[in-house]
Amino acid sequence: MRLDSVQPPAVPHFFLYGEAPRDADDRFLHLEALDDRSRPNRWTIRPHVHSGLHQLLLIAEGGGEMRAEAERHAFTAPCLLAVPAGTAHGFRFADGTAGTVLTLSARYLRDLCGREPALAALFSGPAALPLPEPGPVEEAVAELAREIAWAAPGRRGAIEAHLMLLLVASLRRLAATREPASPPGPQALLTARFRELVEAHHRRERPLGAYADDLGVTEARLRSACRAVAGTSPGQIIRERRLLEAKRSLLYSDLGIAEIAYSLGFSDPAYFSRFFAKGTGECPRAFRDRRGADRGEAR
């Protein structure tokens, strides 16, 4: 039996962990102690997604492991964990791990990037960054927490100033471990907007022309931008996003192969299996069986 096209995603989508999804305000910012949610959950945060929210976790004491998509990142305090919006992620913290979780709406970050474009690199991918002790990241978090707790004149401006200092300090820490990224140009911005549309429509077949129309550009211009920025075609970006959702369903759900195929907009499960095998080198069932230990651990 074919499932409805609005089949829920394999990985739970939350606003903040455990909270039903909702739209974040343009300037949404939230700061809380790490153990507010990790301690009641026995230091294990199961895999989940925040669709429009980026997160920075400052780990002050303890350590653990972050799982981001199919990758694992071990970490030890003091360190900083960056989790981009839309990333399937979870944590296993050592008992008593202490720190702070900053959650920032993607729209707020885009606004800040309009003033400081280099900030976009901070959430270009999941990262675990060791920190010097003490350092500017910890100082910026402490000052931001104080301003959020107060109701003094100029509070909003002070909060944004300390937020910007925190993001810049985190970016500089990232730059110390990676090659610095160039500020995004028009082609990078077009590719980013295309990826946002793919995120919204990847559960159904959609021609490239429809994406180009939504973006107000020609298909040729969209292809050129994706080639220059991502080194691949728009069609491949779409296929990779659909493959990612298929992998999530295989790893984190009990849906059958046919059910997963229908939930991703494929009318024929056999075609879905060929699509998956072409993209990964193995059939869906083999992928699920090979990663069975990971799947069992995450549930």
UniProtKB/TrEMBL annotation:
Residues 192-290 form the HTH araC/xylS-type domain. This is AraC family transcriptional regulator. Coiled coil: none annotated. One of its GO terms (molecular function) is sequence-specific DNA binding. It comes from Methylobacterium variabile. Transmembrane segments: none annotated. InterPro entries: AraC-bd, AraC_XylS_family_regulators, Cupin_HpaA-like_N, Homeodomain-like_sf, HTH_AraC, RmlC-like_jellyroll, RmlC_Cupin_sf, Tscrpt_reg_AraC-type_HTH. The lineage of its organism: Bacteria, Pseudomonadati, Pseudomonadota, Alphaproteobacteria, Hyphomicrobiales. Keywords: Activator, DNA-binding, Transcription, Transcription regulation. Pfam families: AraC_binding, HTH_18.
